[in-house]
Automatic annotation (TrEMBL):
Orn/Lys/Arg decarboxylases family 1 pyridoxal-P attachment site domain ranges (all copies): 20-313
Domain of life from the UniProt record: Bacteria
Family, per entry: Belongs to the Orn/Lys/Arg decarboxylase class-I family.
Pfam families documented for this protein: OKR_DC_1 (PF01276), OKR_DC_1_C (PF03711)
Name of protein: Lysine decarboxylase
Provenance organism: Siminovitchia fordii
Keyword Lyase included in the entry's annotation: yes
Lineage: Bacteria, Bacillati, Bacillota, Bacilli, Bacillales
Key words of the record: Decarboxylase, Lyase, Pyridoxal phosphate
Names of required cofactors: pyridoxal 5'-phosphate
Residue ranges of domain Orn/Lys/Arg decarboxylase C-terminal in the record: 414-476
């Protein structure tokens, strides 16, 4: 597929049938030169014999930056061409390949936009990597509480008037940073927000980790770039077809210092990047343009038909079909929950695992099934069969409904606040452990992170309230997984020494 672009009076034809970086790796393999350079497996000659049948072919192109293979940190050849093709496919002015997942992109954005002491307006339900990036940058975060979808109780972008009010109170921020879509595929129209940011001369940054396929067909929500965002992170490995840990960072407009961004990414990405991951990004773009968009349309049609049928058949379970609070939903994600909350999302996660269907996420209420661009009827039917089986099982069981207690993760929508202490200051301050109930009123000394989706309940430097303590207890009792807590029992917590 050739796409013709006209710029500055010149006509450029981009050939999307090519995968320049992958092709360079194939040439490397075909030349069959003797490797006297890293990596130590020497194109697979030296490797664990029992596992060689799994790795042998891929190791032959697990190359490094030598003659004929471009340099990620100074791309002039195949990587540059691959990134240019990706920018065209996703509607960006410039695209950077990432080999540390969207985490690297979020760290890079924070370090590019913020100097120590700079303020930035940040949606509070961001992935931990955003806060870690702001910590490293020494930025002062102004937190905005998100909106909460009433049925699923999931967090999403706050209403525009709340963000406008926050900007009016903080006109010196370096940008506005939101997550859209959320982990559950709920997408809001951010075009007006992008326009407001543009008028103020600040970038709109969007963590679009779960929306790499957005804008690639009419059947899915529009992309953040198409709605005017300036910096967009996409986890290409999540919803498209690249290998795990491979992502893209897209830039549009003139509000971002590209030279500084490239310099920062050169600092935080490995000087020995995986060319397997980079090559898979190149191939994910080619597949998307050549076949993926059509496959996406066909898959959505199949999924929507099955979802509609299921919604009429289910007795104990429900499948979310959208709400007036959400402008667009991602049809590649099915949100399943127990009617009347008879069982929790964590329990559903285990039930479906035993049934042979592994969900992407479980939370107090819901689980999420995540489909790919190209799902055949028989593969969808396996998931449908598992849902029906669990639905029947719950009807047969004499399950005692849970006591309905509202689990509150965030402040009321519209709440805007600057923490008592910046992330970086809190990180470097002395801390000590106290019992959970005794932590109320203190400043948190660690990240309290129910995972997934990797959104901190508490960040370092935030004041611990009774609401936080109650939520920690509730989540722990329900079986939530906390990532890297100082106390697995969640009975104690680090607080900042006063």
């Amino acid at each position: 597929m050739n796409i013709t672009k006209v710029s500055a009076g010149k006509t450029n034809t981009l050939d999307h049938t090519k995968a320049p970086l992958y092709e360079a790796l194939c040439i490397y393999e075909e030349t069959n030169r003797t490797s006297m350079h890293v990596p130590g497996h020497k194109d697979g000659r030296v490797f664990d014999k029992a596992a060689q049948h799994h790795f042998s072919k891929i190791l032959k192109i697990d190359a490094t930056c030598i003659k004929g293979i471009d340099d990620l940190h100074q791309p002039t050849d195949s990587i540059l061409e691959a990134q240019t093709l990706a920018a065209d496919a996703f509607g960006a002015d410039r695209t950077f390949f990432l080999v540390g997942g969207s985490t690297i992109g979020n760290l890079g954005i924070a370090l590019t936009l913020c100097s120590p002491g700079d303020k930035i307006l940040v949606q509070r339900n961001m992935h931990k990597s955003v806060f870690n990036g702001l910590l490293l940058a020494g930025a002062h975060s102004i937190y905005m509480a998100p909106a909460i979808e009433s049925e699923t109780k999931t967090a999403m972008v706050a209403e525009l008037h709340h963000i406008e009010a926050a900007l009016a109170e903080n006109p010196d921020v370096k940008g506005v940073w939101v997550t859209n879509p959320n982990y559950y595929g709920m997408s809001q129209d951010i075009s007006r927000l992008a326009e407001i940011c543009r008028q103020q001369g600040i970038p709109l940054i969007v963590d679009e980790a779960h929306g790499a396929h957005f804008g690639q067909a009419e059947e899915v929500p529009p992309s953040a770039l198409s709605m005017g965002a300036n910096l967009v992170i996409q986890s290409t490995h999540k919803m498209l077809t690249s290998m795990h840990m491979s992502s893209m960072l897209h830039v549009k407009g003139d509000l971002v210092d590209l030279e500084r961004l490239a310099r920062v990414l050169g600092m935080i990405q490995s000087t020995s990047p995986s060319y397997l991951l980079l090559g898979s990004l190149d191939l994910a773009r080619r597949y998307l343009v050549e076949h993926g968009r059509e496959h996406l349309r066909e898959t959505v049609q199949r999924l929507e038909k099955k979802r509609t049928e299921l919604s009429l058949e289910l007795k104990s379970l429900s499948i979310w079909g959208g709400s007036s609070e959400v402008q667009r939903r991602d049809p590649l994600k099915w949100i399943i929950s127990s009617k009347d909350e008879v069982v929790s999302g964590y329990e559903l996660l285990d039930l479906f695992y035993d049934q042979g269907a592994v969900a992407e996420i479980g939370d107090p209420r819901n689980i999420v099934f995540l489909f790919s661009l190209n799902e055949k009827e028989e593969d969808i039917d396996k998931v449908v069969g598992a849902i029906k089986a669990i639905d029947e099982k719950l009807q047969e069981l004499a399950v005692i409904p849970h006591e309905k207690k509202e689990i509150i993760m965030f402040d009321e929508e519209g709440t805007v606040y600057e923490p008592n202490m910046s992330l970086q200051d809190a990180f470097h301050r002395p801390r000590h452990k106290v019992k959970l109930d005794d932590a109320i009123g203190s400043l948190c000394g660690e990240t309290v992170l129910p995972y997934p989706p990797g959104i901190p309940l508490l960040n370092p430097g935030e004041e611990i309230t009774k609401r936080h303590v109650d939520t920690i207890k509730q989540l722990h009792e329900m079986g939530a997984y906390f990532q890297s807590p100082s106390d697995d029992s969640m009975e104690t917590l680090y607080v900042i020494k006063s």
